[in-house]
């Protein structure tokens, strides 16, 4: 009798074919996260114009502004991760879009670096909320065999969004000034918040854990599978249904994660340190090396495009092998990133190729880390798990631009060689995570392994 009154939500999701529902979710998530990538990168493309418009004599004064939104993300990612796990992913996504859209728009009216710094910090709090919740949302609607692939496609809008300010900087900034970057970056997220409120679904596994949302779950199940036979009064079951009272960071260290969680945090910090150094300083460094602003913006945009392709290339290997492809990419990133400064002094085509390959490695790494981290944790901790990794990892993203400011007097070739060091360290740490996770899966009971074939 008890068996007849049980409905396996995970079984339904894992065995479904891809439908219009999945495609619609991926498309909407892609465009929401596209705007996230745009807003993170916009300040870097505005920086060369700000140096001239505000008569900034010391370029290192830009470092705190580059890092301000990253400090905000440090707080916003775990905060909105908690909101998503506790009150719903959809509410967290809508609130995030409204927050960073408003404060990015207000940057249009900034008159000093100090004003811009505080506005970027507040925008960063909102920006931090999108990744953990959209990753969790897409992972929980994806069939097990394609979980990493579908989630990576959904969040691949970040590097493309990061390239968009380069296009606007090249085409519109000469006519409208640096404020055009923040007009676009402020208005579009507010529009995305409206679209999310209207059409973004709530996580089905989150609803399964909330008895008070039972009617919403039944309605959503009917949308996914109109012919699903749901017994009256059925108990809904998900594969990782373990509930936690409230939230404490110590939950992220339970169930074989005591070493894995801090190592994952280290991986986020190392990769984000290298990424945000490159993102923040490359346009300014290349401009100071006598490359025209438009060409420097194009080089940075190629970095973002390479990152999009890198993330997509990782889709199937991650589904099958988990962390191992990421560890290999960390190893490859070191020589590629280290070569950017050298090629920048030789020829423009070589520089463009190095920027593209650098993005392929560095942003491909970040995409892979985001997705694989979500799969480590059960549903009731998933947004928190990703949020804390992103939040703690932002320490690296804050340090990266600041270290760049301290080393900016070095020749450009040596500066980029130093920026390769985090990736060498990350390769060692990632191989350790891959080995520990393989041991964890092997030691786990069969039922606990079914969350993902790669993990």
Report on the structure:
By secondary structure, the chain is mainly α. It has 21 helices and two strands. A two-stranded parallel sheet has the order 1-2. The two termini are 34 Å apart.
List the keywords.
two-stranded parallel ribbon, Growth Hormone, Chain: A, globular, 21 helices, 455 residues, mainly alpha, disordered C terminus
> Tally the helices: what do you get?
21
CATH H-level homologous superfamily name: MFS general substrate transporter like domains
SS content category: mainly alpha
* Unreliable residue stretches: 446-455
Series of H and E elements: EHHHHHHHHHHHHEHHHHHHHHH
Provide the spatial order of strands within the biggest beta sheet: 1-2
| End-to-end CA span | 34 Å
Considering DSSP H and I runs of 4 or more, what fraction of the residues is helical? Answer: over 70%
Q: How many strand segments?
A: 2
Give the CATH level 1 class: Mainly Alpha
Question: What is the radius of gyration?
Answer: 22 Å
Oligomer: single chain
Mean pLDDT: 82
CATH architecture: Up-down Bundle
CATH topology: Growth Hormone, Chain: A
Strand % is under 5%
Strand count, sense and barrel status of the largest sheet are:
2 strands, parallel
Compute the number of structural domains.
Answer: 1
Principal-axes shape call: globular
């Amino acid at each position: 009798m008890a068996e007849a009154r049980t409905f396996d939500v995970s079984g339904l999701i894992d065995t479904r074919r891809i439908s219009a529902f999945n495609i619609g979710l991926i498309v909407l998530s892609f465009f929401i996260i596209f705007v996230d990538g745009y807003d993170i990168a916009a300040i870097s493309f505005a920086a060369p114009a700000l140096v001239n418009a505000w008569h900034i004599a010391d370029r290192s004064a830009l470092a705190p502004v580059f890092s301000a939104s990253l400090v905000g993300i440090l707080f916003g990612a775990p905060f909105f991760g908690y909101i998503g796990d506790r009150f719903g992913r959809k509410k967290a996504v809508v609130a995030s879009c409204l927050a960073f859209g408003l404060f990015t728009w207000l940057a249009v009216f900034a008159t000093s670096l100090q004003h811009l710094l505080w506005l970027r910090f507040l925008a960063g709090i909102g920006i931090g909320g999108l990744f953990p919740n959209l990753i969790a949302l897409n992972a929980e609607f994806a069939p097990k065999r394609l979980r990493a692939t579908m989630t990576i496609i959904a969040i691949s809008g970040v590097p493309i969004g990061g390239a968009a300010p380069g296009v606007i900087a090249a085409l519109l900034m000469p006519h409208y000034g640096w404020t055009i970057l923040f007009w676009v970056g402020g208005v579009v997220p507010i529009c995305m918040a409206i679209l999310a409120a209207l059409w973004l679904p709530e996580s089905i596994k989150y609803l399964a854990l909330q008895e008070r949302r039972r009617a919403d779950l039944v309605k959503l199940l009917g949308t996914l599978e109109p012919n699903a036979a749901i017994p009256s009064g059925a108990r809904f079951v998900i594969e990782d249904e373990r509930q936690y009272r409230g939230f404490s960071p110590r939950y992220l260290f339970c169930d074989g994660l005591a070493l894995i969680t801090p190592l994952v945090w280290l991986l986020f910090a190392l990769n984000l340190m290298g990424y945000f150094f490159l993102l923040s300083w490359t346009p300014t460094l290349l401009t100071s090396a006598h490359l025209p602003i438009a060409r420097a913006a194009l080089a940075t945009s190629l970095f973002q495009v390479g990152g999009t392709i890198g993330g997509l290339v990782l889709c199937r290997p991650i589904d099958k092998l988990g962390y191992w492809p990421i560890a290999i990419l960390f190893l490859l990133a070191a020589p590629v990133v280290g070569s950017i400064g050298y090629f920048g002094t030789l020829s423009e085509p070589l520089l463009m190729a190095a920027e593209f390959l650098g993005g392929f490695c560095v942003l491909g790494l970040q995409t892979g880390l985001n997705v694989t981290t979500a799969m480590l944790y059960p549903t009731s901790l998933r947004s928190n798990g990703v949020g804390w990794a992103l939040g703690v990892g932002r320490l690296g993203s804050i340090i990266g631009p600041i270290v760049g400011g301290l080393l900016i007097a070095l020749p450009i070739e040596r500066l980029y060689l130093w920026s390769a060091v985090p990736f060498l360290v990350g390769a060692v740490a990632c191989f350790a995570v891959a080995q520990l996770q393989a041991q964890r899966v092997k030691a786990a009971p069969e039922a606990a392994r079914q969350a993902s074939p790669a993990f």
